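README: folding subset

This subset contains proteins for which both the sequence and a predicted structure token string are available. Records are stored as plain text. Below is the entry for Redox-sensing transcriptional repressor Rex (224 residues), shown exactly as it appears on disk.
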Amino acid sequence: MTGASTTDRGLPNATVARLPLYLRALTQLRATGSATCSSDQLAEATGVSSANVRKDLSHLGSHGTRGVGYDVAHLQAEIAQAIGQTQEWNVVLVGAGHLGKALAAYPGFASRGSRIVAVVDADPKRLGEQVVDGLVIESADDLDEIVRDRAVSIAILATPTHAAQDVADRLVAAGVTSILNFAPVALRVPDGVDVRQVDVAAELQILAYHEQRKSSPREEAVSG
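--- output ---
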């Protein structure tokens, strides 16, 4: 799994992770008719500090205009270019269980430059089942052909844990170079393949930790 602090084009990974937040905020600002915005406005809309907003945008060469701020349309186009939103990316979704079906039905992918072109599953009894309009479950046996024929470069894994590494190996061998992994397992991939891990249970555990810390002082006060 790749873990460099900067991307190949020189942007820090932390900056890349925040650029979609800025793009979403700018899209909303433009929809309301705003022509300019300040770093403070972007900070408020994204939950990122103003200092980080200015630093992140400076990596793109955008420094804004003193007393005016940033041109919303220009900055929106600049960020879209930086994170590959000026073209559509074909995505294959592997795993058509409850999570996979929910992801396939999520409308936010298409509006942000990614299009799910296939949903595959290993269960032969589910083949041909409609997931959403225009997408039916296809066989995992055809994964290599699907990746090749539909020019897929990104995959979403929503498989059981035990199957994730094998599926990842097949995807990489077929030519997929980016994987969004929802299976709770750390994938082993070669250099040049990017993996983003989404572990919802782990995120809930982190929140549970913070909830426990919030309640501890009260409990100690009562016990004392």
